[in-house]
Inverse folding.
């Protein structure tokens, strides 16, 4: 089973003739072949229903095929649909196309016009092709300007992440027909040269020229012999397409190599947990190289809020890569960094005014700790050099950040010799969704009053404790903390790396409490998950104290500066991501996801073995009574068509904001099926026939 998308450099490039010829060439080679026209305009009404001109042509060549969406008006698809009171959209077209792929042999999907032919006001043929991800056969009309058209089309395919399987050059007009201004000899010379040039340019890009078809007067006739000539010219093309590599070619070998040499997060090098190969992703779906399509419940660990393949983000990255991908930030600046800072200042809680761009979340946490330490050094209070953190916290994996993580789940015992001993307070007991109880703040108040003299800062993940246990606590706690920090002269650092940019339903979780921390770390979703980037924002007060220090206390310079600080690619894509977020009704979307998750996960509460179910913003958590076997749960989820990776006792989802209702339903159903199966099979879900109903 193989499918290809046949497209042209422009209208009348000869796609239909080439498709017809290929059908005949496949037939001669005894390869079952079938053609599909996703949208056909100019259809004729007959007593047996609409008759599609392209299908008629394929049949003349002895081929089989059908059209999926037919319109009478002989104009471009979006216009024909509009005139006839219909609307085309990529998702229904793609669904119909996928269903039309023949079980056996080769299916050729023939587009209409070229790549950028509109299907509606927002989507075009290339969007449909991206959705289908079939390798592409580009039919190039051999006329003046054809190299330009062909190379631009190849470029567009590459930028869309599509593989061009080959090109067919096709002469579509009789000699001296194209342009009255060009002399016939000159035209012959040019068109004759095109094949050689196209073959060379194609070779540079790994796209072979599979055939060069001269002009034929009688293509449209039903004379079988003329089609035999055509089929002979396309014999090689058909053979190449039939033998073209499957998407997962080499995947087995790569997985074995990976297993032997690559270290994955939190795994053994010698006995690693199994991994799967991701070959692509689009929207809220991941595609594995074995062809499996999974609904992504993880947003790749919080960050892919706009899902995958968002054109605005992809374009921003490509544009910036072509312009200035990286330059040192010492002594130089650039528009992407400045524009990002401008955008952040508009979104951050009022009072945060100075931005330090850094490479990753953990580095941002290190930077925030160094800021707090230098602040007190500069203020002549160097003895204030410890940090107060919460149990159940997660702040990153570098040594400084790790010292702030929960001492038990953060593996402090393993690194006890080198980790700075911080001061820990029990996690806030007041649930987000229950009335606030003042006594839940007592442990913090007690500790902070006792240690204020030696404490540089309190570091917390506001409202949502993420990787440390997915715990949601009451925002009133943050208001109390802000007031107490002010009273005792302790800095307040908010780690919004997981919570930032809408995940909780607020732009930042601090916004629930209306507080401004002295220092805030952001990361993860900052670039929409396209690249690693983080930022540390500080108030004027923090920046002024550090910057006003005398020579003995740092001389006013903040002492940090990573090589890839403010990387232009990352900043440019972060700008695009923030623009995308702000242009979208993200608050409504997150609220909608919250309601759907709440309803979808509620039945889990009644299942034995489930300790708690909680939902906040676009985060849904099922907490089990016992720790889960990650591998078994993951196998179960993949069998259900979802990507969910539990850890510890929590099974949770935080889908991209662009997730559809149907995809959300799939995620909740899979979680419910998993906990039910686990309840039946001693705590671990078992992939049995029941799975496939989910
Ligand atoms: C992920 C995370 C970090 C660490 O970020 P990295 O980019 O993985 O280094 C820090 N704090 C919180 C709250 C996080 O969720």
């Amino acid at each position: 089973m193989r499918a290809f998308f046949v497209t042209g450099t422009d209208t009348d490039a000869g796609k239909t003739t080439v498709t017809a010829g290929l059908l005949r060439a496949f037939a001669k080679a005894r390869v079952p072949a079938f053609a599909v026209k996703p949208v056909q305009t100019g259809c004729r009404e007959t007593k047996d229903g609409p008759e599609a001109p392209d299908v008629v042509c394929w049949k003349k060549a002895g081929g089989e095929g059908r059209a999926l969406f037919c319109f009478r008006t002989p104009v471009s698809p979006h216009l024909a649909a509009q005139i006839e009171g219909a609307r085309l959209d990529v998702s229904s077209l793609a669904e119909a196309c996928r269903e039309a792929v023949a079980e056996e042999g080769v299916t050729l999907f023939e587009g209409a016009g070229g790549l950028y032919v509109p299907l509606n006001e927002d989507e075009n043929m290339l969007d449909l092709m991206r959705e289908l991800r079939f390798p592409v056969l580009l039919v190039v009309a051999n006329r003046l300007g054809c190299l330009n058209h062909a190379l631009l089309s190849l470029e567009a395919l590459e930028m869309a992440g599509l593989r061009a399987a080959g090109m067919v050059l096709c002469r579509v007009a009789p000699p001296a027909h194209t342009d009255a201004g060009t002399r016939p000899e000159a035209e012959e010379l040019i068109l004759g040269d095109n094949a050689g040039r196209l073959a060379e340019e194609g070779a540079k890009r790994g796209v072979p020229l599979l055939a060069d078809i001269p002009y034929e007067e009688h293509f449209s006739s039903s004379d079988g012999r003329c089609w035999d000539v055509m089929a002979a010219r396309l014999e090689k093309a058909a053979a190449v397409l039939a033998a073209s590599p499957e998407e997962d070619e080499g995947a087995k070998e790569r997985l074995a190599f990976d297993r032997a040499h690559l270290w994955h997060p939190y795994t053994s090098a010698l006995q690693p947990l199994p991994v799967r190969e991701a070959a692509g992703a689009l929207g809220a779906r991941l595609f594995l190289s074995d062809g499996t399509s999974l609904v992504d419940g993880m947003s790749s660990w919080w960050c892919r809020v706009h899902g995958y393949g968002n054109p605005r983000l992809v374009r921003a990255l490509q544009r910036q890569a072509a312009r200035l991908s990286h330059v040192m930030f010492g002594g130089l600046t650039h528009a992407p960094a400045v524009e990002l800072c401008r955008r952040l200042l508009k979104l951050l809680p009022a009072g945060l005014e100075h931005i330090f761009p850094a490479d990753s979340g953990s580095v941002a946490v290190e930077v925030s700790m160094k800021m707090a330490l230098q602040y007190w050094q500069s203020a002549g209070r160097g003895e204030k050099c410890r940090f107060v953190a919460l149990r159940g916290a997660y702040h990153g994996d570098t040594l400084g950040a790790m010292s702030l993580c929960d001492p038990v789940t953060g593996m402090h015992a393993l690194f006890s010799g080198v980790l700075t001993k911080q001061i820990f307070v029990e996690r806030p007991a007041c649930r987000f969704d229950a009335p606030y109880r003042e006594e839940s703040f007592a442990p913090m108040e007690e500790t902070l009053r006792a240690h204020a003299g030696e404490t540089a800062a309190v570091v917390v993940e506001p409202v949502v404790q993420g990787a440390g246990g997915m715990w949601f606590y009451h925002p009133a706690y943050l208001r109390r903390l802000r007031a107490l920090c002010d009273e005792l002269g302790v800095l307040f650092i908010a780690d919004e790396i997981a919570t930032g940019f809408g995940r909780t339903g607020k732009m930042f979780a601090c916004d629930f409490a209306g507080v401004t921390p002295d220092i805030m770390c952001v990361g993860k979703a900052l670039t929409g998950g396209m690249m690693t980037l983080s930022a540390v924002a500080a108030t004027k007060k923090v920046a002024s104290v550090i910057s006003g220090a005398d020579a003995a206390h740092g001389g006013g310079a903040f002492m940090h500066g990573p090589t890839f600080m403010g990387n232009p690619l990352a900043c440019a894509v972060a700008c695009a991501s923030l623009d995308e977020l702000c242009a979208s009704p993200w608050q409504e979307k997150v609220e909608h996801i919250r309601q759907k998750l709440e309803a979808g996960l509620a039945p889990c509460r009644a299942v034995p073995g489930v300790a708690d179910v909680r939902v906040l913003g676009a985060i849904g958590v099922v907490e089990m009574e016992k720790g889960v076997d990650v591998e078994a749960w993951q196998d179960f989820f993949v069998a259900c068509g979802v990507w969910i990776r539990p850890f510890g006792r929590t099974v949770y989802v935080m889908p991209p904001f662009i997730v559809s209702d149907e995809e959300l339903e799939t995620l909740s159903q899979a979680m419910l099926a998993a906990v039910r199966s686990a309840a039946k099979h001693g705590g671990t879900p078992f992939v049995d026939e029941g799975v496939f109903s989910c």
Notes: Residues 360-362, 365, 394-396, 461, 466-467, 495, 497-498, 523-524 surround pyridoxal-5'-phosphate (CB under 6 Å). The CA atoms of residues 628 and 649 lie 6 Å apart. The longest helix spans residues 184-204. The first strand starts at residue 2 and ends at 8.
